[in-house]
Amino acid sequence: MGPEPLEPQFTAATLLAACADxxxxxxxxxxxxxxxxxxxxxxxxxxxxxxxLHPALPAASLTRPAAGKLVRAxxxxxxxxxxxxxxxxxxxxxxxxxxxxxxxxxxxxxRAGEPCPRCPGPPACAGVERMTQSGRSSFxxxxxxxx
Length: 147
Ligand SMILES: [Zn+2]
Known about the structure:
It is a single chain. The protein is mainly α. It has one domain (12-87, 103-140): Helicase, Ruva Protein, domain 3 (Orthogonal Bundle). It has helices at 12-19, 26-31, 41-50, 64-85, 89-92, and strands spanning 129-133, 136-140. It starts with 11 loop residues before the first helix and ends in a 7-residue tail after the last strand. Bound molecules: zinc ion (ZN). Zinc ion (ZN) binds at residues 116, 118-119, 125, 141, 143-144.
């Protein structure tokens, strides 16, 4: 098992090392329990969105600055979820967990076809898109999340 996302052992450097030479999509790396433990599908979508990274980006393409931004985004999303729910992280970090309270705060997850909260709208941005990766839904903004 890898470190949990809020543990100090989970850093941009360790994430970058795990992604080096890997052709798999970045999203798969983040769902890999050997790299980071217990990060669920929804949190991955939200963190990638905040870090401006496309879920299908080849892991090896992750840059040092982007890895730092991604680690910060993951921690921010988790911390906000804990605060919003007033509950322990353990209740929120699980692959298929019911997200309860924090659901209203998702920016892309489950919002296919809705405007991206950070983009100006059509015609510049057609809104949040959904794609399937390894049988799981991924939600992203095709305009500002770079692949
Ligand atoms: Zn956008």
